[in-house]
Amino acid sequence: MFTRQLLVLGPELQERIFSLNVLVAGCGALGTATLEMLTRLGVGKITVIDADIVEVSNIHRTHFFKREDVGKPKAEVCVRRAREIGSGTQLEAILDIVDETNAESLVKGKDFVFDALDSVNSRLILNDACVKNGVPLIYGGISGEYGSAMYVSEDGPCLSCFMTPMEQVDSCETIGTTVTTVTLVASLQVQMMVNALRGEIPKGLYYVDGRGLSLQALDIKKNSLCEACSLHEFRYLKGIKTNCGLIRVKFEPPSLERPFVTRTSDGLIICHENCFKKLGRE
Ligand SMILES: [Zn+2]
User: Where is the THIF-type NAD/FAD binding fold domain (predicted)?
Assistant: First the structure.
């Protein structure tokens, strides 16, 4: 299956890829694209985490989703489609959000973590967990026909050097995008992993402009006051107020085989094994 790829990567690097244990945080547009590429590369083990369900509005930009998947958990659909590739990758779906209660246990023991989240606050939690535990984080972000990707190692610079949490109500990003931009950014992220395995650690923030057909490497300096990579305080692991996306809510659901979804005046309640409230976003 990997004969053509071996011509490019060589047997040593391919063996290293077969042995990798990777986390993909988020199984939306970016998460499905990175998951597909990582599976086709032959990554040994991939864990995918997402608590959301597939909606019709996701399908146009999301590699693995079809109309028949609407209402099903994204993480389960992602993993089922990735298994169909038949690359031998061991795949696990976790129906949960990434927050301060689980971020560290999710990243521990992983060789790489892919940030395919859509909330700045969740990214900052994941960034803290990765920097604290010395696990490389590969960030990807998308806005319209522009995107960015960055490789974060424990010494920094990290996402917390230049990102700040969104605290105002309704700060949810609802900027659209297209599948072309998603795929460009996911490709950059996965290529960064391959390069890092060769010992070529990517430096800076890579900014891709699909419309202008350009790729730029922006120099990002380590912030000497960064509470993650400089001061090692990791304040987002102590919790962060979130007004957007999915949050964990207390609710005792019945024993559920399928996700249980109810619409409330301010969002959706989604229950699998746990319950989550989806705020500020259709
Ligand atoms: Zn930092």
Answer: 3-227
